[in-house]
TrEMBL record:
<feature type="transmembrane region" description="Helical">
    <location>
        <begin position="279"/>
        <end position="305"/>
    </location>
</feature>
<dbReference type="Pfam" id="PF00528">
    <property type="entry name" value="BPD_transp_1"/>
</dbReference>
<keyword id="KW-1003">Cell membrane</keyword>
<dbReference type="GO" id="GO:0071916">
    <property type="term" value="F:dipeptide transmembrane transporter activity"/>
</dbReference>
<dbReference type="InterPro" id="IPR000515">
    <property type="entry name" value="MetI-like"/>
</dbReference>
<feature type="transmembrane region" description="Helical">
    <location>
        <begin position="26"/>
        <end position="48"/>
    </location>
</feature>
<comment type="similarity">
    <text>Belongs to the binding-protein-dependent transport system permease family.</text>
</comment>
<keyword id="KW-1133">Transmembrane helix</keyword>
<dbReference type="InterPro" id="IPR035906">
    <property type="entry name" value="MetI-like_sf"/>
</dbReference>
<keyword id="KW-0812">Transmembrane</keyword>
<dbReference type="InterPro" id="IPR045621">
    <property type="entry name" value="BPD_transp_1_N"/>
</dbReference>
<feature type="transmembrane region" description="Helical">
    <location>
        <begin position="325"/>
        <end position="348"/>
    </location>
</feature>
<feature type="transmembrane region" description="Helical">
    <location>
        <begin position="166"/>
        <end position="186"/>
    </location>
</feature>
<feature type="domain" description="ABC transmembrane type-1">
    <location>
        <begin position="117"/>
        <end position="348"/>
    </location>
</feature>
<dbReference type="GO" id="GO:0005886">
    <property type="term" value="C:plasma membrane"/>
</dbReference>
<protein>
    <submittedName>
        <fullName>Peptide/nickel transport system permease protein</fullName>
    </submittedName>
</protein>
<dbReference type="Pfam" id="PF19300">
    <property type="entry name" value="BPD_transp_1_N"/>
</dbReference>
Length: 356
């Protein structure tokens, strides 16, 4: 006969021993997957940079350099070494946060990215707040009143957000709200007369001016950022509202919605209190991916508004054939997407017990 008093503690201890390795295994697999993905991304960006018909030596010295100067620069850049050796040096540089020198500025690429990325991060953050704050309620309302005039209006606005080019919206916005009505600031992050009034702490002008209590400069910064952020947020709104509507329609067709209505719950409480909670994790994923696309897809908007951010820096590097800067920026975009995907996976496991 089995003694339950002795078996139960052993079973509980065995269960605890199994739980710890499962989390350790998950963390190990996740870390390995991220490392392999980033290594593959680094290899892809490196070899694409080498295959492009752009000679970095000519980009540095110009077309009129002598053969001796050309050969010396080849040796200095390590381009006379085998390709596998160059890739090893490149990976070693990445691990030490050394992405090489930017040909356009003469400074380390990592320093240039650290200088321009906060401007793009601030612009994308304001845009995602606009897109999320309007897109989620719009998607829920479209699902609640499916096939009504509300649904058709929201879907039409979403179609405009998908179809209208950002550069055209930016130009029309500048003509109307800046040149015509004078409601907003012009191109750039701030007027020149206020540029030296900011004490950069975080690199986010809105946050820095608010912390310093300099509200005149804050209003000027806000007048410059609101139009480009609204244009970017309009595109995010279209995607977020469409996906939210799709998720919500699927939930509203479930039996538990009918049961909640039979029990006497109001329509709004049923939708927001029950249906929306079941799609919250999916919506978070959509918002996170939209944010990643805003960070790397603001090139045209930053060009139109002369916004001194990451997208404009990448565009100038491409036009100048600065492959060190191009490859470094491409690698950063990949890291952003991998990080946000990892964050979404973790949120799934935290918020949805069924995925654990």
């Amino acid at each position: 006969m089995v003694d339950i008093t002795q078996t139960a503690p052993r079973a509980i201890a065995g269960t605890r021993r199994k739980l710890l390795p499962s989390w350790v295994t998950f963390a190990g697999k996740t870390l390995l997957s991220v490392c392999v993905t980033l290594l593959g991304l680094a290899a892809l960006t490196f070899f694409i940079g080498r295959l492009l018909p752009i000679d970095p030596v000519v980009a540095i010295l110009g077309d009129n350099s002598t053969q001796e100067a050309y050969d010396n620069m080849v040796r200095q850049l390590g381009l006379d070494k085998p390709l596998w050796y160059q890739f090893g040096v490149y990976i070693k540089g990445i691990l030490s946060l050394d992405l090489g020198q930017a040909l356009t500025t003469g400074k380390p690429v990592i320093d240039d990215i650290a200088r321009v990325f906060p401007a793009t991060l601030e612009l994308a953050s304001v845009a995602i707040v606009i897109g999320t704050g309007l897109g989620i309620p719009a998607g829920v309302l479209a699902a609640m009143y499916r096939n009504s005039w509300i649904d058709h209006t929201i879907r039409f606005i979403g179609l405009l957000g998908y179809s209208a080019p950002n550069f055209w919206l930016g130009l029309m916005g500048l003509v109307l709200f800046y040149a015509g009505l004078g409601w907003i600031g012009g191109p750039g992050r701030i007027d020149l007369i206020y540029e030296f009034d900011i004490q950069p702490v975080t690199g986010f002008y809105l946050l820095d001016t608010a912390m310093a209590g300099n509200w005149d400069v804050f209003r000027n910064v806000f007048s410059h950022i609101i139009l480009p952020a609204s244009i970017l947020g309009f595109g995010a709104l279209a995607y977020i509202s469409r996906m939210t509507r799709s998720f919500m329609i699927e939930q509203l067709s479930q039996e538990y919605i009918v049961a909640a209505r039979v029990k006497g719950l109001s329509w709004h409480r049923t939708v927001w209190g029950h249906a929306f909670r079941n799609i919250a994790v999916q919506v978070v994923t959509v918002v996170a991916l939209s944010y990643a696309f805003l960070l790397e897809g603001a090139v045209l908007t930053e060009t139109v508004f002369a916004w001194p951010g990451f997208g404009r820096y990448l565009t100038n590097a491409l036009l100048a054939g600065d492959m060190n800067a191009v490859v470094g920026c491409t690698l950063l975009v990949g890291v952003i997407f991998v990080s946000l995907n990892l964050l979404c996976d973790l949120l799934y496991r935290i918020c949805d017990p069924r995925t654990r």
